[in-house]
Structure formats: structure tokens, C-alpha cells
Amino acid sequence: MEEKTKSNSSIKKVDIKLLVVDDREDNLFSMETILEKDGYIIKTANSGRAALRTLLKEHDFTLILMDVQMPDLNGFETAELIYERDRLKHIPIIFITANDFAEENVFKGYRMGGIDYISKPINPELLRAKVSVFVELYRKNYELKAQEQRLIVANEVLENEITERKNSENKVQVLNQQLLDNIQQLKSTNEELERFAYVASHDLQEPLRKIRLFGDRLEVKYKPVLEGEGMDFLQKIIKASERMQILIKNILAYSKSSVNADAFEETDLNVLVNDILSDLEVYIKQKDAIINISKLPSLNIIPNQFRQLLQNLIINALKFNKENQPPEIKISAEIAKEVSISGIQSKTSEDGFCNIYISDNGIGFEQKYAEQIFTLFKRLHSYDQYEGTGIGLSVCKKIVEKHNGFISAVGEINKGATFIVSLPVKKQNAIEQFA
């Protein structure tokens, strides 16, 4: 067992300690090599028991990277023993496995306290990205706890000052309530940061894919002189990177504060969808996809979140297409008094709902899974068949709920699927939307 300490000038208040557990020295060395450039304090253990011995002495680890398949104690058994101790329950565990786990094993890992999985052979960038997300959450949690302590101290100071000055009981109650409200706001912010971890690891990939593609074209074909079409590719790269920066900024803002009424804007969905299709231009051409768009309304929405929602659904329709058959996607909308949610219950509104439909001719799904597909990490197909994390549709559901709406799906095996986003609308605008 050894320790490697790295310096990181960006960490001012707290050091980041990682415990890497694997029975193979080459795997330990590989993960240390990948993570050392990020300035973490890394400790290693070559077995579950060695990890437990380390945790008996130290419990201030930010994250544990745990191999599942180990002799004597496997990763799940080790995790169960770790979480039996109260002082260790706060440490998140990422399981590392060489196996394509069945659903019951995945759920077992989450029940043991695991927060994510990484498959072998390890993708260095994916490992660093996932670790960095949870490290950032740790730092934010640390800051929140420190702020909470400051607020508690401030509360005590104010109470003493109020007592000394014999202020009225009403003033004491008002000040205390303000402090309690601030603490509650900090707790809510912490919950939003947890959601951000999943969003950041999933939905920022498409702009990056576009940057890489056009960057490669520029380097291979137009390296000598950047003129004409070469400059056009360069502008596409710049535009995509700018959009990426905006997206990151907005998601970070979303993770730090709950949505308020000021975030909603009257937005033309026709413009929003056209922007999304422009971003996905390369992917659409690769799939030879046909996309038909009917006239869409303008709605009072949170533009960046709704852009993410529609982009997820369109990518879903492109991805789950039939072999040797180009995807056909239809996007339309209508105003209805009543909406059906997964065919089980219905909602009515005098002002009506705007139903947005995204239909495809893909592989579809069994209708009995219509609700389960919106569950976090739920996948109906193996990763070998279709790439994905099982996060996209759960993010869609969260966004629709932020808009006080509903999302449902209708599907049939080999006959495609339709996703319906239902949002409440104002009665006076219902007819004007499609004029």
C-alpha cells in the first residue's frame, strides 16, 4: 500500500483523497497514472480487507474506486462492511467491473451504496470525468457545510445580541426564521448539485462530438490554408464550442439554484427545434434520417432546459432505429383539454394542454415498460446493442415536471414509439399558437 500526494492550487479549503481498491497491481498503477495529473491524494489497496484496514485509520476520503471482482471479499461485500460504520457512510463508491452486469446486479450495487459504474477496460477520459464530477460535488458539499456552520454561529451571535439588548420576541423570531430559510436554501442547492452530476456526464457529449468531427476535417483536408470551406468548418467549430460554454454555464446555474419564474421565457419552438437539428446535422446525415416538422407554437418555458429535453428525445429517436431502415421522425403539436399519462390516468384543464409529439419508426418497446423507461439508469437494451447511460429520459421527466407538465410514451415492438410532452397553456393563447 502506498500514497502519492499531488499538489493542486485550485483546492484551497479541502484536500481531495481517493481510495483505489483492486487486486491487480497493474490496474492500480493504471488508475493512479490516469488520475495523478488532477492533483488528488491517492491511496491504494490490493484487497477488500486492505481497504477496510485503511478506513479504520482514515475516514476522510472523497471517493472510493472499488473493483467488483476480487478474491476473498468482492467489491459488494467490501462496500457492505464499509457502510456498516456510520463515519464511513458519507463516502461514495464507484464500482469498476469487467462484466456486463445484469439488472439485478446493478441494483445490488446501488443498494450497497454505489453511485456509479465504470466498465473495464477503463476509458481514461471517462474515468477522469466521472471522478471530477463527484469531486466537484464533494467540494460544493464542503462549502455548503462550512456556510451552514457560519450561519449557525451567526445565529448564536444574533441570539446573544438580541438577549443582551433585550429586543422584542418578534424580532428574535424574524431573524431566526431568516437564518432557517437560508439553511433550507443551502440544502435545496445541494440537491440540485446532485442532479447536475448526472446531467453533466450525459448531455454535454453532443457538442463535443461535433467539435471533434469538424476539427478532424479541418486538420486533414485544410491544414495548409484555411480558406473557403475550411473557414466554414472553423466557424462551425467556434459556434459549437461557444454553445458548449453556454450550455455548461446554464447547467451550472441550474445546479446552484432552484428554478424561479424569471427563468421562464416566451419561446418559439420552431426556432428551438431548428437550432437542435442544426447541432445534430452530422448525426442526422450519418443516419440518413428523414425529419418532418409541423408548425409548432410559442410557449412560456425555460429555453435551455427545454432545448435539452427536445434534443434528448430526438437523439433517442435517431439512435433506436431499425437495422437497414433510415429513421423517420415526426415532430408536431396540438392543444387538448385532457392528457392521458401512460394510458393509466388522465389530467384535465379548462385552459388546455399543449401536447408535443416526437414519433419515430424505430424498434419501439413493449408498452408495459412505458413508465419504467423514465426511471434513472433504466435500460431496455444492453450497451453492446445501443450506447447510452439510462439517464436521458429521466432527465426529460425532471425538466417536464419543472414546467408543471407531464411526459408519457406509447410504443410497440418494431413499430416505433411516440413520446408526448404535455404542458399547461393559457386559454387566451391556445388558438393563437397555431395561427
Describe this structure in words.
Helix 2 packs parallel to helix 3, helix 6 (169-202) runs antiparallel to helix 8 (229-256) and helix 7 (205-221) runs antiparallel to helix 8. Strand 12 (406-411) and strand 13 (417-424) form a beta hairpin. The chain has a 6-stranded mixed β-sheet, sandwiched between helices. Strands 8-10-11-13-12 form a 5-stranded mixed β-sheet. The radius of gyration is 25 Å and the shape is globular. It has 12 helices and 13 strands. Mean pLDDT is 76; it is low at 1-12, 253-259, 381-389 and 427-431. It has 4 domains: 3-122, 3-Layer(aba) Sandwich (Rossmann fold); 135-202; 203-256, no CATH class; 258-434, Heat Shock Protein 90, CATH 3.30.565. With 435 residues, it is α/β, with parallel strands linked by helices. Helix content is 47%, strand content 19%. It has helices at residues 25-35, 48-57, 75-82, 103-111, 124-165, 169-202, 205-221, 229-256, 269-279, 281-287, 303-319, 392-402; strands at residues 3-4, 17-21, 41-45, 63-67, 93-97, 114-119, 265-268, 290-293, 298-301, 328-341, 345-360, 406-411, 417-424. The N and C termini lie far apart (71 Å).
The count of domains is 4
Please bin the fraction of helical residues. 40-55%
What sequence of helices (H) and strands (E) makes up the elements?
A: EEHEHEHEHEHHHHEHHEEHEEHEE
Helical region count?
A: 12
Which regions are unreliable across 5 or more consecutive residues at pLDDT < 50? Answer: 1-12, 253-259, 381-389, 427-431
The major pleated sheet works out as: 6 strands, mixed
Radius of gyration: 25 Å
Structural class: alpha/beta
**What's the total number of strands?**
13
CATH homologous superfamily grouping of the largest domain = Histidine kinase-like ATPase, C-terminal domain
Q: What's the end-to-end separation, in Å?
A: 71 Å
Sheet with the most strands: spatial strand order: 1-3-2-4-5-6
Overall spatial form: globular
> CATH fold name of the largest domain, please?
Heat Shock Protein 90
The appropriate CATH architecture of the largest domain is: 2-Layer Sandwich
Would you tell me the overall average pLDDT?
76
- β-strand amount: 15-25%
